[in-house]
Amino acid sequence: MPADSPADSRTRASAPTSPAASVPPAAAPPVPSAAVSVSGWGRTAPTTALLVRPRTQEEAAAAVRECGERGGIARGLGRAYGDAAQNAGGAVFDMTGLDRIRVIDTTRTSDTGAPAATVVCDAGVSLHHLMEVLLPLGWFVPVTPGTRYVTVGGAIGADIHGKNHHVSGSFSRHVLAMDVLTADGSVHTVGPGSALFDATAGGMGLTGVILSATVQLLPVETSLMAVDTERATDLDDLMARLTATDHRYRYSVAWIDLLARGAAMGRSVLTRGDHAPLDALPERARARRAPLAFRPGQLPAAPSFLPEGLLGKASVGLFNELWYRKAPRSRTGELQKISTFFHPLDGVPHWNRIYGRSGFVQYQFVVGYGKEEALRRIVRRISERGCPSFLAVLKRFGEGDPGWLSFPMPGWTLALDIPANLPGLGAFLDELDEEVAAADGRVYLAKDSRLRPEMLAAMYPRLDDFRALRAELDPRGVFRSDLSRRLAL
Amino acid sequence: MKDAFGTPQSLLVLGGTSEIGLATARRLVARRTRTVWLAGRPSPALEKAAAGLRDMGADVRTVAFDALDPESHEESLGKIFTEGDIDMVLLAFGVLGDQARDEDEPLAAVRVAQTNYTGAVSAGLVCARALQSQGHGSLVVLSSVAGERARRSNFIYGSSKAGLDAFAQGLGDALHGTGVHVMVVRPGFVRSKMTAGMEEAPMATTPDAVAAAIETGLRRRSETVWVPGALRFVMSALRHAPRPVFRRLPL
């Protein structure tokens, strides 16, 4: 029998026999809505939309039916960097009102006989909440990006990846089923392999609104990570280390100093590890008493106004220097909290404000194995230009994922944050796009806010299938976003 | 849609033969802009301007627009917005007039005022409403330093720009929070056909420099842009100069 989740106590009665069901729809309280300015996490190009906050699946269906001629798009916690979850002049469905964890089923076994579990939850549930609930039970989300503050719906819509992509693939690879609300107001329960599922995984919300999902979980013995840290002196050293030893770690990532030039170009700090087993905790350590406790710390939020140019070349260069020097040449088995290892920036709420009013762009691309020369060229160009990026991350992707517009493919992926007010940045990134496309690579739509529409077809070979399915399921173009308008998705 | 750097994909230029307007269009077409509407009185010059932008790869259409016929604005401009979103409207029409003649012929002076101010009020409001229902877009208004303080040598033109400038500032405040961004651009003396044969003022600039400043302003979402930037401080000083002093300045 499926075990009831602790969160189920919050479940509201919604049986069809309840008195509320007999009330005619006209008397139901209206779905809360307000015209607000909406932007992505990068805070560039805000637009205004009617923010609608459905609290039930029925209200979500009503919101989709009534969203008007400029259409609507689902939005979770707004961590997409660009304009994927904004819809100028139309509706934006804030899905965080649908936040119930319905069932946690821990009775399964995997193909290999190991214990397995699934969770059935609403799309608006955040990974943070899942961790709060699941970790004490000994389970972890299958994939987490650099922030816990993404919703399950958003995780599927962007088909997010984490530090474990080289072994585990993307988030939607662990989704067994999901309910998708399509443009005609009907709900489809779909599983992997169906066209709607594969178009929705990574489909940036443009195929429909994800209402709920069944997600496979990962068993863990503790809430700590056993982490190995080492330094790489330059890009070639880094790539050699990652290639030789990545398969030994479930999680692997390299922080790379893109301001370092010359012989030090590409110097990096590798952090890799896995969930610490219980016997890895020291005998009398405090953690022994509550090995599965989830205690993310939190610092004060960044103030709402910060001047431009805080992150210039000098300050970022200094930070990078210290960060590199501070890292041990080599250290193994260090125990870190989950929040420290996966989500260091979540500790500072609103950290995106440090880029000031004009915001920042994140550039993330992937180039396949065998295209290392393209990666070297791009890293060289970035470091020669001196883009002040203090959050550049390199990692290896494993096998690609089935989503038609899924970003990951086997190869090297580099992600960097750059202040948007850097003069000439737009043209520079366009040039990098050319390099990426020429190497048969692609950029990540969940982070994009500036790609040239012409580049899209070369980067996403299944774009035509995606467009055809959308034309079939949504002929009136109900699901629309600023991203879809900008890139003519 | 505009990208993260504020560069529009579609552009409407009111005053389709304006040198500053076209310099801006060229600059933006070289970046992201693919659709350009040139609105102006039908003329070979308008078609030539369109052809020039087409050669750069843009999809360019022209539309008949007359600043002096505000009653037609609703229809002529409204239909542009029904064909698709416009990310940026550049209000670039305007006439300099001839100060000496205009002082003698009140009706000629009125035409300057009607073109630069009245025409801009109606066109600006029509576009602002359309942008507002889109929930996004920039309305860039070409004002002038001449509007900052009336000078003996061109106060008819200057007063019309002063009216336009005040109108655009107020409109920007009215549209704050609607997703629409209004940017007032105040160039100094611009070397162009409008000023051909005139004696150059200090800190003279070019249409290309104004276009570059507009692009930067879009990126920064500025509300006011001076071209060149140093004019902000020069004009600030001049604005506060006592009138007996100001009157005697060689401006």
UniProtKB/TrEMBL annotation, chain A:
Query: Per the record's keyword annotation, is Hydrolase included, yes or no?
Result: no
Q: What GO MF annotations does this protein's record show?
A: D-arabinono-1,4-lactone oxidase activity; FAD binding
SUPFAM superfamilies recorded: FAD-binding/transporter-associated domain-like
| PROSITE patterns the record matches | FAD_PCMH (PS51387)
Give the range the annotation lists for the signal sequence: none
GO CC list: membrane
Superkingdom of source: Bacteria
Alphabetical list of InterPro entries matching this protein: ALO_C, FAD-bd_PCMH, FAD-bd_PCMH-like_sf, FAD-bd_PCMH_sub2, FAD_lactone_oxidase-like, Oxid_FAD_bind_N, Vanillyl_alc_oxidase_C-sub2
Its keywords, alphabetically, are: Oxidoreductase
Mark out the compositionally biased spans (Low complexity): 12-25
Signal is among the record's keywords: no
The record's listing under Pfam families reads: ALO, FAD_binding_4
Record domain FAD-binding PCMH-type: where:
44-220
List the residue ranges of the region (Disordered).
1-39
Which named protein is this? Decaprenylphosphoryl-beta-D-ribose oxidase
Which source organism does the UniProt entry give? Streptomyces venezuelae
Automatic annotation (TrEMBL), chain B:
PROSITE patterns assigned to the protein according to its UniProt record, in alphabetical order:
ADH_SHORT (PS00061)
Gene Ontology molecular-function annotations: oxidoreductase activity
Residues making up the signal peptide according to the UniProt record: none
**Entries under Pfam families matching the protein:** adh_short
Instruction: State the InterPro entries in the record.
Output: NAD(P)-bd_dom_sf (IPR036291), Sc_DH/Rdtase_CS (IPR020904), SDR_fam (IPR002347)
Which keywords does this chain's UniProt record carry? Oxidoreductase
- Does the keyword Oxidoreductase belong to this entry? yes
Q: Which family does it belong to?
A: Belongs to the short-chain dehydrogenases/reductases (SDR) family.
What name does UniProt use for this protein?
A: Decaprenylphospho-beta-D-erythro-pentofuranosid-2-ulose 2-reductase
Q: Which organism is it from?
A: Streptomyces venezuelae
Organism ancestry: Bacteria, Bacillati, Actinomycetota, Actinomycetes, Kitasatosporales
